[in-house]
Amino acid sequence: xxxxxxxxxxxxxxxxxxxxxxxxxxxxxxxxxxxxxxxxxxxxxxxxxxxxxxxxxxxxxxxxxxxxxxxxxxxxxxxxxxxxxxxxxxxxxxxxxxxxxxxxxxxxxxxxxxxxxxxxxxxxxxxxxxxxxxxxxxxxxxxxxxxxxxxxxxxxxxxxxxxxxxxxxxxxxxxxxxxxxxxxxxxxxxxxxxxxxxxxxxxxxxxxxxxxxxxxxxxxxxxxxxxxxxxxxxxxxxxxxxxxxxxxxxxxxxxxxxxxxxxxxxxxxxxxxxxxxxxxxxxxxxxxxxxxxxxxxxxxxxxxxxxxxxxxxxxxxxxxxxxxxxxxxxxxxxxxxxxxxxxxxxxxxxxxxxxxxxxxxxxxxxxxxxxxxxxxxxxxxxxxxxxxxxxxxxxxxxxxxxxxxxxxxxxxxxxxxxxxxxxxxxxxxxxxxxxxxxxxxxxxxxxxxxxxxxxxxxxxxxxxxxxxxxxxxxxxxxxxxxxxxxxxxxxxxxx
Length: 495
Fold this sequence. Notes:
This protein is an alpha/beta fold. The chain has helices at 30-38, 42-49, 86-100, 118-131, 161-186, 194-208, 217-222, 226-232, 275-278, 286-300, 346-359, 373-379, 391-404, 437-446, 481-492; strands spanning 2-6, 17-23, 59-62, 72-79, 107-111, 150-154, 211-215, 240-247, 255-266, 306-316, 328-330, 336-338, 364-369, 384-388, 408-410, 428-429, 454-458, 464-465, 475-476.
């Protein structure tokens, strides 16, 4: 898909669709007034009649647009200038991208409204129109959305064209990274399993200059990763740990570790899920897919920072060799774990991978996992839960999420929750009971990061959408890819 930047007047932009974002109570001045004049006053009449108000995500089509080069016009509301934020802008532009991508080979021209920060808007246009035209209907003969033939972003001739071009490139890279994550999560488990995921990671690493190492079952045994090996024991498909390195910060710079849970299918093991509970369990590797998507963007943006991505990959299946309730596992760092629920497997996978990241010299850590239904109960389906052992580091990650328009909320990590995972027969147990389940899962993970500043992001709610919305496709969302990249950028700047 061609992504272009132009200073063409809005009325002269040749495209199937001209998309014009508008703030609330729009005034017919500047470029908008010129467009209205070319349209014979059509925009003014819609404003006067109240059919166009500019409220957030409002979409009004002018289906016949004589007098301008585009075939039709879509007016998209952004709300009040004073309250406009990255979340509102993203939803508005994603809605526009989804509405205009229903036919093949469409061209669109998207205007940057006057009075807004042009680079921020240009970046979001590029990202949203890269993501919004790609659906989850990978196996349908007739798809609901199609990639655009071209997207032209209309900026002012007075703006710094170099800065705008850089913003467009960044947005395109971020959008493509999100689509990598979405594609992996949306594909079924017979296509995406530990070995195939690792091959995809190797290919992307080769494309983007990342160092890649894949640890197979024999290597995991050598590395004493008893927890992930136990989870993998019931499957015919062997586990993998993928390690990707971006060394943009120099030998003496600190290293940020991104760690992702990659359970490519979760049956629940002997604590078997219901059929309803298993329907979306191809998505239980979203944490690993998010790390992979983010690592490609970090490499392509050539961020001046050292980042290592770790992806723990396994299936959780049922067979005669499945790990059992009552088993006591020994994780890489020597912590013993009593298994009281084989469906609490993600934390076991992360236990070994987090410990490995610490041993490999991580200075700070972020892990991501579709870890607990309890977090969805607490925060709903669109908010990420954040848990941390270091408040300044958590503040940095949450600040990055806010900058990117991704909703995250910090949960408590009081010491009293440690008591809930104490075991009578081992150091800890892998469940803490009914209450505070998202927190006890995080407290479990904390046992494997030592004294390193660490943030755990539970993405069980927002990683996989249960239905379509105007601004979002159902299925995989690619949530937190932007946040990881922004955090990495700030880390590289000494944040």
